[in-house]
Write a structure and sequence with these properties.
Number of strands: 7
Distance between the termini: 15 Å
Radius of gyration: 17 Å
Largest sheet: 5 strands, parallel
Helix content: 40-55%
Length: about 210
């Protein structure tokens, strides 16, 4: 079983990164393999909206994008994974530009028939709810602002997962990171670890049931 951690923060040693590291550690404690992708270290171009990847080569598991960057190899890793942990800070009320670019370019996992206007694209290789994902969002605003800070990020990421038929397990908002105490952050790290454990357990259940 492979769990892929995807970091949308440009700070690879920041609090969001540390929470993702701990969540992946929890996943490994259950004998799962893990791999972490720091999006800041990857060459990802902005989606240009040409829809080539969506309308052509429907027989392929990943649509072909005319841009030459790291996204094709990232998506190859993505489709091979059994589970995902998305981690991003809140920037101006939403996920970071890094995470948004990655989410936009995941459109290559979808397809649409030329005449199917006005409909949501279909996923090329549905996960059939055998895969699971969890999310970590950090923000400077305290936990009481989760609804306006965390939830838009969760909803943006989960929209893709719903189409892909990936189950969402945990949505973990950690607020007040600008002045969080060491004791409180330690508690958040423990919860991130448990989140990683839960994710692997739920993947196992989903795969056994399906």
């Amino acid at each position: 079983m492979l769990v892929l951690g995807i970091l949308g923060s440009p700070r690879i040693n920041g609090n969001c990164s540390k929470l993702l590291t701990k969540a992946l550690e929890g996943a490994r404690s259950t004998s799962a393999e893990t791999k972490r992708i720091d999006l800041i270290s990857k060459h990802i171009e902005f989606c240009r909206g040409c829809s080539t990847c969506v309308y052509e080569n429907h027989e392929l598991p990943i649509g072909k994008c005319p841009q030459q960057d790291d996204m094709e190899s990232l998506l190859e890793e993505y489709v091979q994974a059994d589970g995902y942990i998305f981690a991003t800070p809140v920037y101006d009320g939403f996920v970071t530009a890094l995470m948004k670019m990655f989410l936009e370019r995941k459109i290559a996992l979808m397809y649409r028939d030329p005449g199917a206007y006005g409909k949501i694209p279909a996923v090329r290789r549905p996960a059939d709810f055998k895969k699971c994902a969890s999310m970590i969002v950090t923000g400077n605003c305290s936990d009481e602002y989760r609804e306006v800070m965390g939830d838009p990020c969760f909803e943006g990421m989960e929209a893709h997962l719903m189409i892909e038929q990936v189950l969402t397990i945990d949505k973990f908002y950690v607020g007040g990171v600008e002045n969080i105490t060491q004791q409180v952050f330690s508690e958040k790290l423990d919860e991130a670890y448990r989140m990683g454990v839960r994710l692997v357990e739920e993947i196992g259940k989903a795969q056994a049931e399906n």
